[in-house]
Design goal:
- Keywords: Cell membrane, Lipoprotein, Membrane, Palmitate, Signal.
- The protein is an alpha/beta fold.
- The chain folds into two domains: 191 residues, 3-Layer(aba) Sandwich (D-Maltodextrin-Binding Protein, domain 2); 194 residues, D-Maltodextrin-Binding Protein, domain 2 (3-Layer(aba) Sandwich), CATH 3.40.190.
- The protein is 41% helix and 13% strand.
- The protein has a four-stranded mixed beta sheet.
- The longest helix has 29 residues.
Length: 478
């Protein structure tokens, strides 16, 4: 069972057939739309029909509960004899673990990919350079709102585009979280006075949200920030209503695609990107990611014996070879991509509908089954790029920004552990923080009200979570 971001591949489709031929086995995948995946996973975990392999967030409370109750294989000491399944990075493996136990094969992702995507043509129109500090970022947002960057003579633009974000997680790589880290708040959890605490329990969290509220009050952020569908995040940027997006750096390529596909011959002049931004005092704190996105976990309900487990792990081991990962993440060489410079998969035949289907199946589905990542982040599949110099330029810039920002990354200190009370009460009380943040930004509550909501989190089980997180971290091997 895996996430789906578009149309489900046909079981008889070209790419699935190629994967099955490579494995020498038939595979059956239950594809579930991403928006419905958490709900479907909760239902599946409570059922008696868990697939052999599931793609799952290893920190998801229902999964942690199931795994600790014995519903999934503990792979901690079982991977050494499968050469392609051994963790590529021990720290990331620990981050993806449940208190040091490995219940799945983590899917490698970039350790740092936060960035600000900017309308390059608007910057030139308002006469400003790319921002490097929070103060310069504010100046750009203000100019994009007030200086008619689209040149239509109307006051109908804003600086920053923020979509609705799930309130159930207060540290989920949202634009809010990134800005909070810029101000010096911990990413997720961090040490304060010798104790690890959640990021929202710091003065920097309050300062960051006061800054964001100022931007909301001045009309520098889209007025529908609390309701804009994340699936439509690119639209205001493309249609000339908003000028900046704080998100993963690959979004720069998504918006380049929109301008190129629209027939804009100068699409490379529309998009630029900067990395994480320094504070007013010159100190820089960059927002990192976990180094993984979900894990492939193996069900004890469907895989009952050590012999069956060995069969599944051998299959996953073969899928984790370079040839297998290229099929999952790049597609079929010579059919929809060609290799250039030994490390780049350049798309070809992009106007052939059948080839486009292969590419869509990669992008929207099969890449979810991959574990090794691409060469540019230490993996083994090729980095994929469309043809065209603007893409090469933005990828070169992305690489440069990542290398720079990794030097100032603020890593989540609590990633390796999952507190029992977090499993029991976390989904309910974390929602308090997400909701309170949006209420504060929209003016429904003031600063005192925001702080009162944070105290509700503490009283609702948060204090116990903090104690447990610190105790669990102390028990991890040093």
């Amino acid at each position: 069972m895996a996430k789906l971001f578009g149309t489900a591949p046909e079981p008889t489709g070209e790419l699935q057939q190629a994967i099955e031929k490579f494995l020498g086995k038939k595979i059956r995948v239950t594809w579930v739309p991403n928006a419905e995946y958490t709900e479907k996973m909760n239902v599946t975990l409570a059922s008696d029909s868990i697939p052999q392999v599931v793609v799952v967030d290893p920190k998801m409370p229902a999964f942690v509960k199931s795994a600790q109750a014995g519903a999934f294989w503990d792979l901690t000491d079982k991977l050494d004899k499968y050469p392609n399944l051994k963790p590529a990075d021990e720290r990331t493996a620990l981050n993806a673990s449940v208190n040091g136990k490995i219940y799945g094969l983590y899917r490698m992702r970039p350790l740092l990919r936060s960035a600000v995507v900017i309308r390059k043509d608007w910057l030139e129109k308002v006469g400003l350079k790319e921002p490097t500090t929070i103060d310069e970022f504010y100046e750009v947002a203000k100019a994009f709102t007030e200086k008619d960057p689209d040149g239509n003579g109307k006051k109908d633009t804003y600086g920053l585009i923020i979509p609705k974000w799930p309130s159930s997680s207060y540290a989920s790589a949202s634009p809010y979280d990134v800005v909070e880290t810029w101000f010096g708040a911990p990413t997720g959890w961090g040490e304060r006075d010798g104790k690890v605490v959640p990021g929202f329990d710091t003065p920097e969290f309050i300062e960051a949200n006061k800054f964001l509220k100022k931007m909301v009050d001045e009309g520098l952020i889209n007025p529908d920030f609390a309701t804009l569908d994340t699936a439509k995040w690119n639209e205001p940027f493309f249609h000339g209503r908003g000028g900046m997006i704080i998100d993963v750096n690959i979004r720069s390529r998504q918006v380049l695609d929109l301008f190129r596909e629209d027939g804009d011959q100068n699409y490379g002049d529309k998009v630029t990107m900067v990395g994480n931004l320094a504070r007013s005092d010159g100190k820089k704190f960059s927002y990192p990611f976990t180094g993984y996105a979900d894990s492939l976990a193996i069900s004890k309900q469907s895989v009952r014996t050590e012999a069956e487990l060995d069969n599944v792990l051998k299959t996953l081991d073969k899928l984790a070879t370079k040839e297998g990962q290229v099929l999952l993440q790049n597609g079929i060489e010579g059919r929809n991509f060609k290799v250039e410079n030994g490390d780049t998969a350049t798309l070809i035949n992009v106007d052939d509908p059948a080839v486009r289907t292969v590419q869509d199946n990669v992008d929207d589905a099969f890449t979810q089954l991959s574990t090794k990542g691409t060469m540019d982040i230490g993996g083994i599949a090729y980095q994929r790029i469309p043809p065209g110099q603007p893409y090469r330029d933005i990828i070169a810039k992305q690489k440069q920004l990542v290398e720079e920002d990794l030097k100032t990354a603020v890593h989540n200190a609590a990633l390796p552990v999952v507190a029992p009370t977090q499993i029991e009460k976390g989904p309910q009380i974390d929602k308090i923080i997400g909701d309170a943040r949006v209420k504060f930004l929209s003016g429904a509550i003031d600063e005192a009200g925001l702080k009162a909501e944070i105290q509700k989190w503490h009283a609702g089980g948060g204090d116990q979570i903090i104690t447990e997180v610190n105790d669990l971290l102390a028990k991890l091997p040093k």
